[in-house]
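Interim report, section 4.2 (structural modelling).
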Amino acid sequence: GENVEQHPSTLSVQEGDSAVIKCTYSDSASNYFPWYKQELGKRPQLIIDIRSNVGEKKDQRIAVTLNKTAKHFSLHITETQPEDSAVYFCAASKNNQGGKLIFGQGTELSVKP
Amino acid sequence: GAGVSQTPSNKVTEKGKYVELRCDPISGHTALYWYRQSLGQGPEFLIYFQGTGAADDSGLPNDRFFAVRPEGSVSTLKIQRTERGDSAVYLCASSPSSGYTDTQYFGPGTRLTVL
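Predicted structure of the assembly:
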């Protein structure tokens, strides 16, 4: 079955710097890749997603890139702010498995003021 | 509108006991998912429902775990003969349908502790 690896497990940046989180997946049939943000003690919330027919997607300070050949995708956060501090999870799914999501292990992002 | 809700928020039980965890999805959402999140890990898929039927239960770890959604709305995850290794946060999510790109909206989770 699908396996999603996420790196790094922790990331500390200064406010205003950029942060990059990377994920690799094993199943070449996976074709949908969402990213969730989970603040301490709260529920995961979708922040951005990308489908396999697109190489890049951007939403204000957040962007996601996908390299299907290499089977990896990345989350980019620019101009980081303290409120970006949270755990970020990547996930993968494919169209013959309904909405079943396979998650990475998570990255704890800390943005220092 | 109201989001996904889960009850109880915390459940402490003793090894060997039976527990039920409840999920109320967003009204009108036909797909409902259960995940388990251990400390420091990503959510792990357990089962999902499309309507009343379990469309994929491949993530249930063993036959002690069972879930139902009899009327296509509220779902209950049932764990028999609980073990300490079952301790985790159990997350429920719902989406408008089971389309693979439909956004899943998560509940706050139930933290289960098995002593």
